[in-house]
């Protein structure tokens, strides 16, 4: 059975990257409606999730998370996310999408069971399509 709506959450301070990801998601053929939430830092995103905790339909299905951002970076977001994760009552798939190819960053992802993968920017349309069909 196909889903009728998928919500993607892009957490990235790069406005150009936000625009490109939104266009890529919109351009990938799918048998469901796509909605994209965009936040410029982890604090905006975690605040949204906390406020939407009781409304399952407002929560994203996939989060594409940058690491290096002002105010609250990706690692800080993940620490906060761990504390609200049990209350969400929805499986949200998180992927790190970063320009960092630092082996320390890539290894650190393993500390977070909530993260399903790490991709170096720019992500290709083919990789993004695979993420969309994996959930």
UniProtKB/TrEMBL annotation:
The keyword Phosphoprotein applies. The modification 4-aspartylphosphate is found at residue 66. Pfam families: Response_reg. This is Response regulator receiver domain-containing protein. Residues 7-135 form the Response regulatory domain. GO terms for biological process: phosphorelay signal transduction system. Keywords: Phosphoprotein. InterPro entries: CheY-like_superfamily, Sig_transdc_resp-reg_receiver, TCS_response_regulator.
């Amino acid at each position: 059975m196909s889903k009728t709506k998928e919500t993607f959450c892009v957490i990235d301070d790069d406005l150009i990257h936000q625009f490109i990801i939104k266009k890529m998601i919109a351009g990938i053929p799918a048998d469901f409606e796509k909605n994209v939430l965009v936040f410029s830092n982890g604090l905006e995103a975690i605040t949204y999730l906390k406020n939407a905790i009781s409304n399952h339909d407002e929560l994203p299905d996939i989060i594409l998370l940058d690491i290096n951002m002002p105010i609250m970076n990706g690692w800080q977001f993940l620490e906060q996310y761990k504390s609200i994760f049990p209350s969400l009552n929805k499986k949200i798939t998180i992927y790190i999408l970063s320009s960092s190819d630092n082996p320390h960053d890539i290894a650190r992802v393993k500390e977070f069971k909530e993260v399903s993968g790490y991709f170096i920017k720019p992500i290709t349309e083919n990789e993004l399509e695979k993420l969309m069909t994996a959930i």
